[in-house]
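Q: Got a minute? One more chain.
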Amino acid sequence: MKFADRKDAGMRLAKALARYDSDDAVIYALPRGGVITAQEVAKQLELPLALVIARKIGHPDNEEYAVCAVTEEGEPVCDTHESHAVDPAWLTNAIARERKEAKRRRLAYDGPDIPATGKIAIIVDDGIATGLTMRSDTRASPRIAKRTHRRRARSTAGGSRLVGA
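A: Always. Here it is, folded:
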């Protein structure tokens, strides 16, 4: 499925998620790219929208390739093979740096903090490469991890396809 842009992806994703149009669901956006898509999903389904901040720990030789991902709190989620192949001191510093940045962004974005306890958490991003940032959100973020239901929705924009709902 091709999308014109992130808004178009959000409208189409909302249609695929129509069964979650209820008071027991919340949309979580991954800044920055996932916000536009998630805003459209939340608008179409009339659901609350909150942010979950995850930061990719890029490989030292290729920043776009994730070794780990971390949220403001909780344990990092790592690709075991890749994380063992990099210098442990470098990885420790990178995790601390990205966690600090996640905390800074949380304060800067100043969005509502909507706990997912007892709700269906729908996490939206504009694309997934290794999946580590998405997994870090579902496992490490206290906003998401304490929920009783786990559902993930993913979309990719910019001429890609819907990869899951």
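A: The chain has one domain: 6-150.
Q: Perfect, thanks.
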